Every structure is written in structure tokens, then in C-alpha cells.
Amino acid sequence: MDEKDFQEMSVQLEQEANLREKLKDEVLKLEQKSRSMQGTMNKIHATPTAQLPKIISTVKPVVESCKDDTRAIAFLVPPNNYWRWKQMWSQAVQGVVFTLALCKFLEDGTLITLPEVSQVLGVEADWKDRFTIATEDYLHGIISLVNELSRLAVNAVTLGDFDAPFRISVFVKDLFAGFSLLNLKNDGLRRRFDSLKYDVKRIEEVVYDVSLRKLNTPTTGGDETMS
Amino acid sequence: MMAAVQSMPSTSRDVIMGAFNGYREELDEYYDRREALTKISRDITSLSKKCIFLLHRLVTDPSNKPGHEREVSVNAAKKGYESLGQIKGMFEGISEHLQGNDFWKFQRTISPGLQEFIEAYGFAHYLEHNTLLPYAEVQAYLSTDSGQPYFPLPYSDYLLGISDLTGELMRYAISAITTRGGRARARELCDFVRDCRASFEAFAPQIRGMDHKQKTTTNSLRKIEDATYAMSIREHEFGASPDRLDALVSQYMSGYGQDRGWEGGGRGSRSDEQDEE
Fold first, then answer.
1. For residue B141, is it within any domain?
2. CATH, residue B25
3. Where is this region: Disordered (chain B) (predicted)?
4. Are A27 and A89 in contact (CB under 8 A)?
5. B21 is in which domain, residue-wise?
6. Could you report the predicted ipTM of this complex, rounded to two decimals?
């Protein structure tokens, strides 16, 4: 038994454990911001459509400050070790993506793209072997967006915005069509994608309820410009 | 109304479809590569297991001549190395998918095969040298002729792989104990596994899964200890010389000898073997 061999290994594993602790601290900061932003955004379900910009504007500074955390993580991770540690911040990143996507949809009715997310979070291209937004995490965030929008369709109607379900319906159907293009494996993403149809169905029901009673603005064609 | 909604001009849809087409390409490439590597990892696992069985067969072959244990072990190790050559080729083949940042992307995919390989290689190494396979030697084996590693060997896979080796050594010790000269071998194995267990203990908190392996190692160690204890009790009980006891054991074992390919039966065979000493 070569004791020196084991000692060397032990020293290096110790260093890795230290790195893990440091990363944990940074990830915790991001996680807390992610949670607090989601908490703020939860207010959209009880806020009239006209006042949504105010909520979004309170989230913006927090988004901006996430840049510090992504940078800190990127500088901790050793070169070529992105995939080794990525699991630690996947969930936090998914939450941030969700918030960004929700803000973007409420602002202009469109989908935030992956490059846009990276840009907003200050992720630099040459970090790609240390920190980047994984496509999977981005897609998880977008699925959360759809889950959230099916709730919003219901709650907007409660608050008297009868056109919101129509805007949401079009958008979510586009997203569903997008997800249908993917050849997903039997993993978490696949399971969550499978649940999307219930969200789509729920939104359809709201649209049906509203249109049956002719509560929406008659010129439905103009819905998209009303957000 | 619904129809009106659906027929709305939707440039946003085109943007979304374009983006998702890109995501599909990326995910497809990842899934395809992962699937290919999973298959190779499974093949490596099964070849490694075959190598381990081969080594067991060679070292516990009843036709091995007593007194030549060292030679038998070394020859078995050589055959083991030969059969591992194919696995080396497989690792070389997948190394292009494991460069740079991609290694950790697929580490978990190849980890099972890699650990099983280390177990087999560690067994062969033990038979040849009576020592623990060093980390550096595995990394050197998994490198090109010019010394360029196929991929960086993680400590975790190395330690988890050689930790599994203790189970094989237990099996070896238990089957060796009933062969001539096997009790000394079992004692050696017992000491070795005990040392392994002590050395690995420091890594239990640092490496996920090591704690569980340590429990298995402890169980294996116990089995070897109990077996060597039982043998030692009998040695004293009979007050017999090791040779005499060897003879007793093989006499006892020869009762079960037919299916293991032992020649002759009972007393005759025993006295033959004793004559050779």
C-alpha cells in the first residue's frame, strides 16, 4: 500500500472539498435571489395587468445583481470543469431563467432566448468551460413559465382582464409546438414536458369560458398589441 | 373565436420554432453521444467481469500444482492483462468524446465501466505483485503510447473501483482456503484487505458512495477473518503440521471432487498428492 499515493490523493480531495464549500456559498446567493424574485413575481396573480410593469421594475435590480454571482462562480470553477459542478446551481439557474422569461413575456409577449438570458446574466462566451447556461436548464425554466402562465390565465380573468387568456393561449401553443420539436429522453425534462398538455388544456378552458360569455374584447385579432 | 386566435399572424411562432430547432440539434447530439458511451461502458463492464472470472478460474484451478502458487498467480495475471487489452482499445476509441470540457459531461456515463475495469485490472495487478494497483499506473495504462491520457482519471472512480476489488479478493480467499497452500494465501489476502479498508477509510467522507463500499469491504473482511479463524482453530485442534492439514482438507474436499474435475477420489488421491511434496 503506497501511503504517499494516498496522501497526495487526500490533499487534492481536500482542495476539492474546499472548492465545493466556496461554490456552495456563491450558489446560495444566487439561489436566494432566484427565490426572492420568484416571490416578487408571484404578485402578478393578484395585480391588475396595468400595474405589472411596477412589479417587473422591482425585480430588475435583483436580476442585474445576479451578474456578480455568475461571475463569482465562473471564476471559482477550474477550466474544463463546468459539467462537474454544474449540478450545484442548476436549480437556481432554472429559477432565474423562469423569472426572466416571465418578465419578458409580460413586457412584450415574446419568448426570451437562451442567448438573451446569457446576456442579461452577464455570462461571457469565454467562460464556456466554467459557467454557461445549459440548454436543459433553460428549457426547465421555460416549462416553469408555461406552468405559471396557466395559473395567470385563470387569475387574470378573476381580476377582470378577459383578454389575457387569449394572449397566453397563443404564446403557450407556440411554446408547446416548440417543445414538440425536441426528441426528449426519459428524464426530468421529458416528464415535465408531458405535464405541459394539462397547462395547455387549462388555458383552453379559460379561453372557452371567456369567449362563450363574450367577455373578451371583440376584435380578438388585436390581442397581441394589447399587452 | 378560436379560429380567429389561431389565424393571427405569428412571427413569434417562427422565432420560437427556429430557436427550438437549434435546441433539438444540440440535445440530439448530446443524447446520441451519451447513448453510444453508455453502450460502450456496458461492454467494458461485461468484459471486465469476464476477466475477473477468468482470473478466479486460473488461480483456483484444482490442477494447479502445489508449491507453485506464485508462478500460477503471475501467469494468471498475464492472461488477465491480455484480456484487458481489448478494453484499453475501447477507452482509446471513446477518448475523442472525452476531451476538455466534455469529459465531465460524460463522466457519469462511463463511470460504471471504468470502475469495473479498475477492479479487474486491480485484481490482475494484485496477483502479479501482491500490492494495491497504484492510481498512476491506471492513468498510465489509459494513455497513448506517448503518455497522453485518454482522459483525466477521477480519483473517485479509481477509489470506488479498487474498493470493489476487496469483494473479489474475499471470494478468492474463501475458495483458496480449501486448496493446498491456500491457507497461507487466505491469510495474506486477509491482511491485504484489512490494509485496504484502513487506507480507504479516510476517503469515505470525501467521495460519494465510498461509505457504502466501506461497509461491503468490512463484510468481506469479516468473512475472510472468520474463514481463517476456522482454519486456524482446526490446525490447533489437530495439532497437525500444515502439510498434514492440507492433506486432511483435500481429503475432505475430494468427497465433493467430481464436479470440480478432481481426479480420483478419497484416499488414493490424497496420498498421491502427499507424495509430491
1. no
2. 1.20.58.190
3. 256-277
4. yes
5. 17-60+67-123
6. 0.90
Instruction: Tell me the shortest Cα–Cα distance from A114 to chain B, in angstroms.
Output: 9
Tell me how far the alpha carbon of residue A199 is from its chain's centroid: 16
- Is B155–A174 a contact, with Cβ atoms under 8 angstroms apart? no
Residue of A nearest to B151 (CA): A80
Residues of B whose CB is below 8 A from A115: none
Tell me: do B115 and B34 sit in the same domain: yes
User: CA–CA separation, B158 vs B164, rounded Å?
Assistant: 10
Q: Which helix (H) or strand (E) holds A1?
A: none
**CB burial readout B91-126, b (16+ within 10 A) else e:** beebbebbeebbbbbbbebbbbbbbbbbbbbbbbbb
Tell me the pLDDT of chain B (277 aa) as tens digits: 344 444 444 578 899 999 999 999 999 999 999 999 999 999 999 999 999 999 999 998 888 887 888 999 999 999 999 999 999 999 999 999 999 999 999 999 999 999 999 999 999 999 999 999 999 999 999 999 999 999 999 999 999 999 999 999 999 999 888 777 788 889 999 999 999 999 999 999 999 999 999 999 999 999 999 999 988 888 787 776 767 767 766 666 565 544 444 443 343 334 343 433 3
Same domain, B115 and B169: no
Residue with cell 463546468: A82
Of A81, A110, A183, the CB nearest to B12: A110
Cβ under 8 Å to B: A residues 103-162: 109-111, 113-114, 128-129, 135-136, 138-139
Instruction: Answer whether B19 sits within 8 Å of A181, measured CB to CB.
Output: no
In the three-class reduction of DSSP (H, G, I as helix; E, B as strand; rest coil), residue B25 is classed as: helix
Claim to verify: residue B99 and residue B162 sit in the same structural domain: no
* CATH-assigned architecture of domain A134-227: Up-down Bundle (1.20)
Q: Indicate the fold that domain A1-92+118-132 takes in CATH.
A: Methane Monooxygenase Hydroxylase; Chain G, domain 1 (1.20.58)
